[in-house]
Amino acid sequence: MASHYITVLALDLGNVLVKVDHMRFCRRLADLTGLPPATIHAQVFESDLEFGYDTGRLTSQEFHRRVMDRFGVTLPFSQFSCWWNDIFEPMEGMAELVGRLAARYPLYLLSNTNALHFAYIRKNYAFLDLFQSLVLSFEVGSRKPEAAIYQILIARTGRPASQCLYVDDKLPFVVAAREQGLTSWQFTSPAEFIRCLKQHGLY
Q1: Please, which residues have CB within 8 angstroms of residue 131's CB and are 6 or more apart in sequence?
Q2: Beta strands in 65-199 (DSSP E)
Q3: Do 29 and 72 sit in the same domain of this protein?
Q4: TM spans, by residue (predicted)?
Q5: SS3 (DSSP) at 114
Q6: What is the CATH number of the domain that holds 54?
Q7: 112 and 124, same structural domain?
Q8: Strands 88-90 and 18-20
Q9: Residue 2: pLDDT band with limits 50, 70, 90
Q10: Which phi and psi angles does 12 have, rounded to 5°?
């Protein structure tokens, strides 16, 4: 697509703007339960639990209680929250890049996330203030790759879908975005993202 047609940028959060390591949480819960970390991952991050929490159907307290019930263990909510949130690290160079892009283009965030994670990110990563709108799965009741969440993003931009460049690290979500008319690209590294921006005449 010709570069001048891109007028809006939309970014994923996890493993685009910040690094995410779900296994850090899984290893801690594995120590408590005696189960393998891979089992914890499957039963939390690949299950109805995460779907319910990511789409706002479960509150943080309900999610905590259901995880405890699923594994038959007890962990105070405050400690659970610390473990749950201790999975993020800065993505080198992205905060600075977002600052430069925000000075030139409207920025939007599109993320599958939950209340605890996003409260932590909001508190610790100031670059979120540079985004014009945050489309968060737990607030809108839909998550990628469902069509609804992409349509919410498109509506919020007020621009034709093809004028929005959407960047996500997960290929199925990139493909789903294209199916909704968005121009989309798979994130692999900050350097490759800059290359993508240059290809579109945006950097």
Answers
A1: 102, 107, 108, 109
A2: 88-90, 107-111, 133-136, 164-168, 183-186
A3: yes
A4: none
A5: coil
A6: 1.10.150.240
A7: yes
A8: antiparallel
A9: very low
A10: -75, 165
The two tokens of residue 142 are 């839909």
CB 44 within 8 A of CB 30: no
- Residue corresponding to tokens 């007890």: 74
Query: Is the same domain home to 57 and 116?
Result: no
pTM: 0.94
Residues 103 and 129 in one domain: yes
Q: How confident is the model over 54-106, as pLDDT tens digits?
A: 999 999 999 999 999 999 999 999 999 999 999 999 999 999 999 999 999 99
Strand partners, 14: 18
What's the domain count of the chain? 2
Q: How many residues does the chain have?
A: 203
Give residue 191's identity as a one-letter amino acid code.
A
Is the bond into 145 cis (omega within 30 degrees of 0)?
Answer: yes
80 and 99: one domain? no
Rounded Cα–Cα distance for residues 189 and 8 (Å): 20
Structure tokens at 6: 């891109």
Here the CATH number for the domain that contains residue 141 is 3.40.50.1000
Do 48 and 95 belong to one domain? Answer: no
